[in-house]
Amino acid sequence: MTKTSDRDLAWAYIRGQKAIDAFDRREANAQLRCFALDRELERRGEKRLQRFSKSTTEVNVGEFRVAAE
Fold first, then answer.
1. β strands within the chain, DSSP E
2. Taking every pair of C-alpha atoms in the chain, what is the biggest distance, in angstroms?
3. pTM to 2 decimal places
4. HSE (CB half, 13 Å, CA atoms) of 6?
5. Which pLDDT score is estimated for 21?
6. What's the CA gap between 34 and 28, in Å, rounded?
7. Which residue of 6, 38, 65, 68 has the fewest CB atoms within a 10 Å radius of its CB?
8. Are 50 and 43 in contact (CB under 8 A)?
């Protein structure tokens, strides 16, 4: 790059700094919401897995009781 284009880029950055900062904040907030959603989905998945595991155990126990009769 030439010195002129470096200067132009620096000037454009300075003039657009507020917009760039606002964009960066929105992007960071969106990432935080995605991370929170991922954690919630993982938590719900673990709860469903625990319920499924418990229900299959109960079915297996019930089958053994019926077979024993």
1. none
2. 91
3. 0.53
4. 3
5. 92
6. 10
7. 68
8. no
